[in-house]
Amino acid sequence: MNASHQKFIDIPLLTAILMVCGLSLIVLYSAGGEDMKLLAKHSVRVGFAFVLMLIVSRISPSFLYRWSPYLYGVGLVLLLIVLAVGIIGKGAQRWIDLGLFRFQPAELMKLAVPMMVAWVLARWTLPPRPLALITSIILVLLPTALVILQPDLGTAILIASTGLLVIFLSGVGWKLIVGVLAILSAIAPALWVLVLHDYQRRRVLTLFDPWADPLGAGYHTIQSIIAIGSGGIDGKGWLAGSQSQLEFIPERSTDFIFAVFAEEFGLLGVFVLLALYLFLVFKSLMIAFYAHDTYSRLLAGSLSVTFFLYVFVNIGMVSGILPVVGVPLPLMSYGGTSIVTLMVAFGILMSIDRHKNFLARR
Amino acid sequence: MIPVRDYLKESKIIHNRIVFLFGFVSLMALILIVRLIHLQISQHQHFSTLAQNNRIDIISLPPVRGLIYDRNGEVLAQNFRVYNLEILPDKVENMDETLNELRQLIDLSDDNIRQFKTLLKRRPSFERQTLRANLKEDEAARLAVNQHRYPGVELRARLQRNYPKGELISHVVGYVGRISSEDLAQIDNKRYRGLEYIGKSGIESYYESSLLGKSGVQRAETNAHGRVVRSLEQTEPVAGQTMYLGLDIKLQRKSIEALEGFEGAVVAIEPKTGDILAFVSVPGFDPNPFVNGISRKNYDLLRSSPRTPLLNRALYGRYAPGSTIKGFISLVGIKNDIGHDTKIFCPGWFTLPGHKHRYRDWKKNGHGQVNGHSAVVQSCDVYYYRLAKRLGIDRLHEGMSHFGFGQKSGVDLPGEPSGLMPSRDWKQRARSQPWYPGETVITGIGQGYMLVTPLQLASATAMLANRGQKVEPRFLTAVENAQSQVRTEIAPTLVETNAGVSQRSYAQIIESMEDVIHGQRGTARGISEGIKYQMAGKTGTAQVKSIAQNEKYDEENVEKKFKDHSLFVGFAPLDDPKIAIAVVVEHGGSGGRTAAPIARKLLDYYLLDRLGMYQEESPDDNS
């Protein structure tokens, strides 16, 4: 309650974020073929996202709490619009053109879903009763289904994960969790056939044997694994990765930027980056742990682990233990939308950290 | 009722879950770390090698194929620079626009575009695809100037085989074609790295390994698109050997002209060296379309043509030799003590004792009293029926084999057939039948089973001209190292034969064959008019259709496909033979009427025009 307890900003968290962004610029310079224009564009985006983060960190969680349902509602409507436009225009559409920039409703949902579910669960007692549970599951599945229809399986899985993480944090019984997991694995073969597209199935199969089609489906994975492996312990040096510089790694500025990093900076560089990521995740989890109200705890916990899931899914796919899905490496990959979402998420975490005493006894 | 919230319990629930997630995140992070350690430490060596191989490309530099010249230095096979237009799809920003603009610069058919677009769909976009092959010089020039405007559009130069003499040499030089899957099964793939063509027939195929040369190797750093970034080291390719043939392209052309309107073959050999001066099979075909793959339609046209232009008659054509071999049969006779002065009476037919079948002479009422000499000059069949019968098939087979009948001549062309000089053995093997005496009789006049190729006839005639010295017929007379320009002449291959025929016998037969042309009753006396040199020769008329006992062959009214083949063998000049020739004209009628005049024309051309003999300064030679 005391304003003196409110810190201006969490300096270690901010530092770690800036360090990752700094690394991102260094690697991007190399991956983009020393293109200063690309670097400038990226910097502008990061700067914009950074300012957004600072603004969001000033917003009180109570404000976020109150606006959660509206944000969610708007997101859902936008998803429907995108889908409708896609159907009418006979082509997959993921974004709305706002003239100045393109806006992906799915990105908004990455934040709106955990906020909404946390809002619902925080209104009732924990662990959630069946009604609260069913309501929140529907709230998760609705946008997930809409994003799958786009079709964007990678994003859909991450949206579902953020929502489910909130439900998990709320203390759902282990028996229920194990039961659901058992049912899921039982119906997995059906999902394999019914939900996945051909290209998605191929990607998963490629994972098991990328060398089966080295110039086709396996090409991305093979080349990025070669890049990582040939980097060794100390790497080939900045701007000296043959896989990166000779353009063997596809999408090397965006989804596969980790391969460039691992090739040029080696295992040591990888450890530094992973340490930064883990610091960010653990620091965020600490914020969740020390938050003073249910809504903030649920939201912060979900956002921190989702951040880690991004890291895990991206590095997993680039190093060949997960199928290739279009998930960028947080704070590292070139590309506007994801960095804005991430920075806003950190802004929310900072706000929660800053307003520990908000709604303390609600 | 408003439930009473136990905030402590609730926060404990969430705290427990957060602690669990700490563990979960740590575990997942550990999985990543293990994976990365595995890749970057345990398998580092393996992936380093892969990265190295990725980056270092071994590019083969194709050698220049050896050139082929005739005896006068005229080019028979050469290499042209042609340009292909290739596109690297990854570098093209707007494919449709680029294609449209390229269409303004060069000739691009809808077919080209369609084929290219299918390739685009099927092949990865970092691979180059050919949009159009064989650009004309002006098209290539126009593209080269504008190329910078179209990223991803590339001109690639390569060498293509070309045969400037076209049809004239199709059956000698042959052609190269794209390496097929059948070829791939047989060749040493390493030697053909970077090469597109392989000799498919003729000299191109026979001397493939010498013409080919040796590929060079360039080790270069390349990027993922295969573009060379930096050349590391290079071994230059070694060009194939230049080949000089003994062929005289002018005589070759003259021979083809002489056979105009017929199907047939001419083979002319320089007796002393075995050099093949002319090797003609009419009709021929243009080998150039075969280089890049002839179209199905044009190939079918060639294949289904009743004149069979694809058949190399000079090499593969197997003909009954008819009377052309009578001189050789006589030599076999003399060797077996049946002298050239043996006299017989020719009533116009011959019967085997105890048989009624009459073996007829070409001259219905017979030649009357003949001996060996007049039998050759007048081509008396009955004399040879009797001679063959006296010799028997075994001695005939043995004696004729020495002149190369039924034997491969050893010429430097692929797939030479051996023809057929029948024997008891052969008949038992091939037909599972015993040999009948009647078959010996007709062998005496070059009918029946006996089959010779025009090359064999010419080769045997050259041996006769050499008075028994056999020289292997050959095309290649010299090779030249394309780098050092060192020319190596190839010595003729003299073949030791034990024909057991004396020089006197050769003299006798050559004298008789001289009278075939120059004598009063010679079957080819018609061609001696105005001749400036002495020559020897023998006509032959080979039956295509067997004629029944009571039937009469009517040359004027017989259908063309049943008309006799017209043959002639000969050489000139007598004392120092420069050329031996065999002419086969399919369905040309009698040898004296069709084949002999063609031979005369060619001998005249070669001796007078090409060699410049018997001109004003030596009028005495014209005796």
Q: What does this entry look like structurally?
A:
The complex is a heterodimer of chains A (362) and B (623). Chain A is 70% helix and 1% strand. Chain A has helices at 11-31, 36-58, 61-88, 105-123, 130-149, 153-169, 174-194, 198-208, 219-231, 242-245, 257-290, 294-318, 336-354, and strands at residues 96-97, 102-103. In chain A, helix 1 runs antiparallel to helix 11 (257-290) and helix 4 runs parallel beside helix 13. The radius of gyration of chain A is 21 Å and the shape is globular. Helices cover 36% and strands 19% of the residues of chain B. In chain B, strand 18 and strand 19 form a beta hairpin. In chain B, the strands form seven sheets. In chain B, strands 2, 3, 4, 5, 10, 18 and 19 form a seven-stranded mixed sheet that branches. Chain B has a five-stranded antiparallel sheet with strand order 12-11-23-22-21. The radius of gyration of chain B is 36 Å and the shape is elongated. Chain B has 623 residues and is an alpha+beta fold. Chains A and B meet through helix 6, helix 9, helix 11 and helix 12 of A and helix 1 and helix 2 of B.
Taking all residues together, what is the mean pLDDT of chain B?
A: 87
The helicity of chain A comes to over 70%
Name the poorly predicted regions of chain A: 358-362
Instruction: Name the average pLDDT of chain A.
Output: 86
For the largest interface, the chains and their residue counts are:
A-B, 53 and 45 residues
- Helix-strand string of chain A: HHHEEHHHHHHHHHH
CA-CA gap between termini of chain A: 14 Å
CATH homologous group name of the largest domain in chain B: DD-peptidase/beta-lactamase superfamily
Give the distance, in angstroms, between the N- and C-terminal Cα atoms of chain B. Answer: 146 Å
User: Looking across the biggest beta sheet of chain A, what order are the strands in?
Assistant: 1-2
Architecture (CATH level 2) name of the largest domain in chain B: 3-Layer(aba) Sandwich
Total beta strands of chain A: 2
> What share of residues are in beta strands of chain A?
under 5%
What is the helix tally of chain B?
20
Which structural class do you get from the secondary structure elements of chain A? mainly alpha
